[in-house]
Automatic annotation (TrEMBL):
Assigned keywords, A-Z: Methyltransferase, Transferase, Ubiquinone
GO biological process, one term: methylation
Gene3D superfamilies: 2,3-Dihydroxybiphenyl 1,2-Dioxygenase, domain 1
Pfam families: 3-dmu-9_3-mt
UniProt-listed CDD domains: PhnB_like (cd06588)
Name of the protein: 3-demethylubiquinone-9 3-methyltransferase
PhnB-like domain: residues covered: 3-134
Length: 137
């Protein structure tokens, strides 16, 4: 059994995938646009003019696969009640990844030592996805 994250970017999926490729070294494994669906979507499922939006994507960050979509393309992604945790090897990498994810985002907890990690911090990226960056103790 396996659990994987599926993120709905509500019209900004391609931009998000490119951001994660640039900042985290994400490797795109699959990206399908709405217009390339093997079956037509029911009317009203996505707004007209959204044919080039992402119906489904999967990308690898390290050993993990994250799946994503533009969803209903309403332009208002809402990521609440969870965070993605990114374990890195050392403080230098934590600082680099934290700074990259913070670009256009919002720091929720600055990087620093905690009782459970020599370096831990929390940030919501420019898309509103919350990340916890941690160097394991």
């Amino acid at each position: 059994m396996q659990i994987q994250s599926y993120l709905f970017f509500d019209g900004r999926c391609e931009e998000a995938v490119e951001f994660y490729r640039r900042t985290l070294g994400a490797e795109v494994e699959m990206l399908m646009r709405i217009k390339d669906s093997p079956e037509p979507l029911p009317p009203g499922r996505v707004p007209p003019g959204s044919e080039d939006k992402v119906m489904h994507a999967s990308f690898r960050i390290g050993d993990s696969v994250v799946m994503a979509s533009d969803g209903r393309c309403q332009g208002q992604p809402n990521f609440q009640g969870f965070a993605l945790s990114l374990s890195v090897v050392d403080q230098r990498e934590a600082e680099q990844r934290f700074a990259a994810l913070s670009e256009g985002g919002q720091v929720q907890m600055p990087l620093g030592p905690t009782f459970f990690s020599p370096c831990f911090g929390m940030v919501a990226d420019r898309f509103g996805v919350s990340w916890m960056i941690i160097v394991p103790a």
